[in-house]
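User: I'm putting together a teaching handout on how multi-component assemblies are represented. Below are the sequence lines for each component of a complex, exactly as they appear in our records. Could you produce the 3D structure of the whole assembly as structure tokens, so the students can see both representations side by side? Please keep the chain order the same as the input.
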Amino acid sequence: MIDIIFLWIAAGLTIAIFSFLYKDNPFYKLAEHIYVGSAASFWFLYLWYFDVEPKILGPFKELFKTYGFLKMWPHFGPTQWILFIPIFLSICMLLRFIPPVAWLSRWAIAFTVGMAAGLGVTGALQGFIIPQIQATILPLFEKDILTSFNNIIIVVATICTLFYFFFSKEHKGALGLFSKIGITFIMIAFGASFGYTIMARVSLLIGRIHFLIYEWLGSLF
Amino acid sequence: MKTILIFYFLIPPLPPSNVKANDYPNDAGGKIEIKWELSPMDSTIDCYIIFRQEKIKDKWSLPETLSILKRGTNYFLDSNCKDKIEYRYFIRAVKGEEFSDSEFSNVAISSGQWFHKKRTSVLILLIVITLFLFYFLKRAKKEELFIRKIPGLDAIDEAVGRSTEMGRPLLFILGLGTIAEIPTIAGLSILKRVAKKAGEYETDIIVPCFDPLVYVAASETVKEGFIEAGRPDLFKEGNVFFLSYDQFGYAAGVDGIMLRERPGAIFLQGYFYAESLILAETGNSIGAIQISGTTAVTQLPFFIAATDYTLIGEEMYAASAYLTREPLSLATIKGEDYVKILLIIIITLGLILETIASFTGKDIFHFLKNFFEVI
Amino acid sequence: MKEFFEKISRIDRRIIYVIVFISILIPLLIKKGFEFEPLPEVKNAYEFIENLPEGANCLISIDYDAASMPELQPLLEVMLIHLFRKNLKVIMMGHWPLGLPLGQIALEKIARELGKKYGEDYVFLGYRPGIAAVMLNMGKEIRMVFDVDYKGIPLDSLPLMRNVHNYNDIALLIGFEAGAVGDAWVQFAQARYGQKIILTSTAVVAPDLYPYFQAKQIVGLIGGLRGAADYENLVKKRGFAFSGMTAQTIVHIIIIIFIILGNIGYIALRRLR
Amino acid sequence: MKKEVPLAITFISGFVLIVALFIPHEPFGSLQERFNDWYIIVSGFTLILGIDSLLLYHWRKIKRKEKEAPYSIALILSFIITLIWGIHSGIKYGSPFSPNSTFLRYFYTYIFVPLQATMFSLLAFFIASAAYRAFRARGLNATLLLISAGIVMLGRVPKGEDFAPYFIGITFILIAIVSFLEAIPRVNLYEKLIFYGISIISIILIFPIGYLLKIHLPSIADWIMNVPQLGAKRGLFIGISLGAIAMALRIILGIERTYLK
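Assistant: Of course. Below is the structure of the complete assembly, with chains in the same order as your input.
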């Protein structure tokens, strides 16, 4: 019985979201607000159960169980002590609730932005530039004509696209020509990528319509 | 025939040979790799068992089973070692009830390395790029640097102006990126410019956020933009808010804001996933001017299709330099361009070498390609 | 004339929505569609299951969640029907905690329909954290990872599990993949322990897994709705995926017709001006 | 102090992460993972700030008795109910996400998933309307974009090859008509000839290309994805990565500090 009630709720929410396609209406508004409200709780619980709790309380758990809160401190090793850095940063963040010291939250942001910069450099170099260059270093002429042809096109597309992103020179003359070829390849790529994605998106809609017909309406008959 | 078969099943299999143990390179320690030559009867055995002994007070401990490996395997990575302890290994070939053991391997000690040799090419390229950038940073003080037109960025002021004329607020969407991702920071620097313009035009700007840290940073940024415009009084705390940590909850919420607040201009700047088109199409349906920008290559086609102006990939990163015209930022853009030329030269060189390699069949010409082989 | 061209170059988006909706609805309702040949990697998977001896144990791993449900859930159901019809035993576990209820719902539904008994014909183990560690320990002894099933019943009290200890007792592993767990299954269960694996995945992940099929590291690969449709064809239980594929073709064609109409209108208007 | 300390923190955390890439030895080897863990912890706490701002935003709406106030009440209620439900399941079953918890079984599967999946599925409609509206043959690039999209679209579905020749036929006839009409008013003989030429070539090409698509459609679609698409994507990736490096260095050196001032 309880399953049936929830099935109806699920179907109701599905239709409410679809109704948005016609125009904004009370049903969509309700579904949207329920969604945003419950998502806040859901991700809060998720983040705490799967990430924060094991990462921050996990290392203290055993010590806390054996020694209790007051006596566990002398037993902390580097694993425990180092966690006080993120705890400190988190407290800095929460200090935004107290306006006179709210500026401390910038320390935490500064750390994360520094992280972004560090990860940005290493990720871009090791994850993208070098592998992509490695993959572009291809033999232009091989015994197989088709492979040669494909390789040439890949290389021309890569280099011309790079020329399109030249900022410090006006796009005139040879640079202009290359960057024009580049943008042509970019557009072909975008078209292909657009066409390629449609199928996956339609699959999702098929799933929802199937749910409505067979699981929800199907449960009536 | 029968006797031969029985004999065949009863004799113990020949053991593997030449067992070599070595510290696993380019790691933090704690790993030893073991290689061996297969038993000559590899195709008939059931499996190999790999044993390890460690030296405790000058005595070898009892062998400990590490793993059972299927036939045909000649490599094992023992990632459960302690640094500075001596280990040796042997491999047992097993066939039914019968088995035979290999000789002991050499004694090996695991250790951590202070330099990752396989990343040499990364380091060299990083140094070269940094040098280029510093060179132009130094030159920046002396000369005016040129930057080509980026239509999407020129449209920002126009969009803010038109939205103000219509008496509608602005909507700025930073996408799903966290603050630990560069595109988000690029988006924030565009946000600052838009917020400043909003201050000058006395228009409201709404910024719903996905990531809580981005929310905090965005609210500082908008406040700063209004201060720069000389109108800190116009900054409304509640207009920059955290909306949802759920991808489609965020999309649903932003769609709702679009339909109810009717912004005149929408900026989509940051890192986006599948929700990009949900946002851009709804924005289009309310008739707002939309300026999008992302480095998410898979989402760019949708922005191109559904928004009025799109900053494609790198253009978005160039935005902060373009908007502020700050000499130091422009210098890095110039440095970037020269690195591009360098990379094109490297690729061209590599193409020639690989073509020669494919015709002569000599491996030596692969050196440039191999140099860029990294992990 | 001009009005007509203006109309087709500015069709209301709601009309497009309705036509897209109908072009999916109709194939799903009438359950008829285009015939097409199954892909070889799907055929391989089907034949491998067909040739398993009765009573063999199959381990199903749920490594997806709700976002990939439309692509993987129908396949899971058809797969379960096939396995149960062949009297194979099903052990279900998973690495994506949020996806497990989806697996459980399908398992209970199909088991009820075919009159299978919990503990004898199928078992639901649940989820344990740590992907690689779970896979490796299961190679030694499943009880190192799952000492009890999801309800807390010790494995030895379940008749099906009494003689199941590690991969040697599992004839086939079927992974339902929406991420990188499939690679881990191949790396740990196949490469280390020689486990026979069939991977089924979303269309996005399938290209990453295809090399494993080419290298014969997995016995079959069923990718996306297309793979599921092929499998439905092979099992002769046409349903969601099969009519879904027809809907796909129709929607794609509808979109192209709209694009052409739009362009005719656009070109004509530009001429008339 | 208010400015220097954050700049120093940014510089150190960014610089150390870059250096760590080249040092496998501890403590650098696992620095990236450790930083990531810290980041997750900080964002877990910051989520409290975020939720506070969300609830406050709606609380204000309720207090001001705005038109949308009833929905804001629904939002706050659903937030509270979900939280209590999750915590209740957490206490009863050990974790709200254990397979037999009612939170996962009912809230997640019957409320959260349908909302997520339906919102996601709206994309099928939007992708159709965006394609219809945006794919107009405004120029060479736009035409190529729409042709490559069309071929890849049809190449992905069964029976696509039966329809593709007709569509490509219509496209080529359109191109022929347009360039024919374009040619008539031209005065320059050279231009006139070019447009007549395009018109004739398109007509001639209809049958060979149609035939090619009929036989090889899926492989042509694959070719577009694997050759020109791949090349352009590579260029995009390299450009984006260089931009990211320059941006990152600007951040580390303190040139770019939007987040700070």
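A couple of points students might notice: Chain C touches chain D at residues 11, 13, 16-17, 20-21, 24, 34, 36, 66-67, 69-70, 97-98, 100-102, 104-105, 124, 126-127, 150-151, 226, 245, 248-249, 251-256, 258-264, 266-267, 271 (CB under 8 Å). The mean pLDDT of chain C is 90.
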